[in-house]
Amino acid sequence: MDPWSKVGIWLAVGVPTMVFMEVWAAVLHGKVWHSLLYTLHESHHVPRTGRWEKNDLLSFTHAPIAIALILYGCLAAETVGREVAYGIGMGMTVFGIAYIVVHDGLVHKRLPVDWLARWRYFRLVRNAHDVHHRTGAVPYGLFFGPWAVKRYSRQRQAQRQA
């Protein structure tokens, strides 16, 4: 398989994987972290006393899967399936890095990335996440947060008018 075909597969699989991870993270956050795993996640909704919080453990849940897929994509016999696995693993990894930079860095100021706030989109993401921290409700996702807040606000307004 030529190198450009591999890159094409990686992009064709990796980019949708990044989008899927945002949806998956929102579902996990809303349905699992705010219910079954709230004893861990609660540390994220109270002022942090040290450098780490219990909630940080939840950040590592998908890393072993991504690592395994990337390793398979590097070490297995050359097949389309190997390239797909690699693309999925890389998509998960890129999403994870972006999440850490924006969520932990920009929103919660645990990394020096305030310069991201120069872009309106990142300010909207930060503001949407602040809404979640004030209310404990929508948005549960991060990157689609501004649209989730807007949609939720419209729904609430329609309910009040009905």
Write the layout of secondary structure elements.
Blueprint (H helix, E strand, L loop, with lengths): L2 H31 L4 H4 L21 H13 L4 H28 L12 H16 L9 H17 L1
Helix pairs in contact: 1-4, 3-4, 4-5, 5-6
Describe this structure in words.
The protein has 162 residues and is an all-alpha fold. The protein has a domain of 112 residues. It is 67% helix and 0% strand.
Radius of gyration: 18 Å
Q: What is the makeup of the main sheet?
A: none
- Note the total helix count: 6
Q: Uncertain spans, ≥5 residues at pLDDT below 50?
A: none
Seen as an oligomer or otherwise, the chain set is single chain
First-residue to last-residue Cα separation: 59 Å
Label this structure with key terms:
162 residues, 6 helices, mainly alpha
Quickly describe the structure:
With 162 residues, this protein is an all-alpha fold. It is built from 6 helices and no strands.
